[in-house]
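Students often ask why we bother predicting the structure of a whole assembly rather than each chain alone. The short answer is interfaces. A chain on its own may look different once its partners are present, and contacts between molecules only exist in the joint model. In this exercise we take two input lines together and write out one structure for the complete complex. Read the inputs first and try to guess which parts will touch.
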Amino acid sequence: MLRHIRLPISNIIFPVPVPVPKRTLSTSAILSEKALPPRLKLNDADITISYLKGTGPGGQKINKTNSAVQLIHKPTNIVIKSQATRSRSQNEKIARQILADKVEQALKGDHSRVALKAARERKKKASRVKKSRRKYRDLDGKIVEGEGEEVMENLGSGEDSEGRMMEEGGDNATPSDSDTDTVHGVKEAEEVDRR
Amino acid sequence: MPRIPTRLIVKAYQNNPLLPLLLRECRSLDSARNELRWLHERALHIARQRAISGRSGGNYPVVGWRGLFRSMCLARSKGVPLQYILGDQPFGDLDIKCVRGVLIPRHETEAITFHAAELILDILSKNNWMDRPKAATLRIMDLCTGTGCIPLLLHALLSPHVLRLSVVGVDISPTAIRLAKENTKRNVRLGVLSERALSEVSFQRGNMLEFNHDGFPTMEGLFPRIPGLATSPEPRCDILISNPPYISPREYYHGTTARSVRIFEPKLALVPPVNLSPSMVQYRNIRREDLFYHHIAALIPRLQVKLAVLECGSHSQAIRVAAMCKDVLGKCNSTGSILVDIWSVTGYDGHPYAVLVRSR
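Now the answer. The structure tokens for the assembled complex follow.
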């Protein structure tokens, strides 16, 4: 992206300031965001906890550092293993959270907490991507306009041609850029589908 | 010990050049990766702390963590227990400081302590202690306490439910007593232990075995010193819990004891000493690894213990200890019935075994 911007800059003599369309750029969190539904509470009787692994005797004879915890949710047969921390109780908490999310997802599908969260994230990302695309498109437009001006000076033609040239430049100057953009867009869609 | 396949070492090296070092002690890629992650986190943390304390705050890049990380991995490759390198071990929700010379708390002990807390709460809820007024202090004694992990975790688990507690940890090692006291303060500071623990948990240096060496107080001499016990005319204790040394010399030297444990952890906390006690004459055939259990069993009737939880090393040892408890208690106790059973839990690979003695 930057390459395309940098190259023509050397050619610019003195670009005439162009009025930039004003857009509100808010960085604060969206206040109207709805709270996510609470996590599913799992029944303790449905869960089998096992502390893994390492073979042979334990106790005083061997100092094990393995703290992995494995939870099995019997009704859905979902297995979660966690060995994030050195504390078994901490690992159990983490595994329980993940298990609750997975079970909920299996039961409710798109209406589960995780799915809602993911959808929200996706939406945010899409809007972010859209914004940045718009920004770079505008930037490209500006640069091309500078180029067009140069050309215009050389030709010494009137206002009408300036506008035309600019438009032409906008179409032709950065074909590769627009290409990557579309490719990017396709990728984005694929990702969305996969999710 | 089986040789580590070269392919595994190469694979580990490709993952991280320091990983083969950890593989020497961990023996499996999975656990080596875990340890590498924990060591990395800690090295970064220490370096960051140094940076903060050295220069007044500031967002400087973290300097020196690589060297630290490397030396940690090198120490681990020589077999130094991870807990001694990192300096702590989680125990329940607590964070127990570990130093050389004191046994590192084990996962089995953690499981047994949780179970003991459940049992105590169960007994309290049934309220079948006839002679016990509601507001009375619940007295708990932990023998061979080491880092103090058992008394501290019991206090953390019981204090929300029990009005007044008195927990005493006894150990022969002065290093252990010092560390246990430090651990109390540390966990109160961390906020995982209530302020009550500072006054309700105490640690005493004492000798469990009857023979006197170096003039340490024996259990007899110790009772008057323990605040919870001294108040009553005759020493009494409601709960007795212990994880005493239980490895036989044979298993220690030629058996299943890990090299890292043999070299770096104190033998004092693992293998019972040769017994010299005169009262042991009648128990000539007792095994050395069961020595402590005999002394603890003798304490149960004398302290009028309601519940005793004794951690054992294996199922066969648990059977022996249970038989011994029945034998010793049968001779001493005249009133009330005594229930001895063996507790274990499936799902743990190490299989924690504990002998439970309940008297009514």
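Check your guess against this: The two ends of chain B are 49 Å apart (CA to CA).
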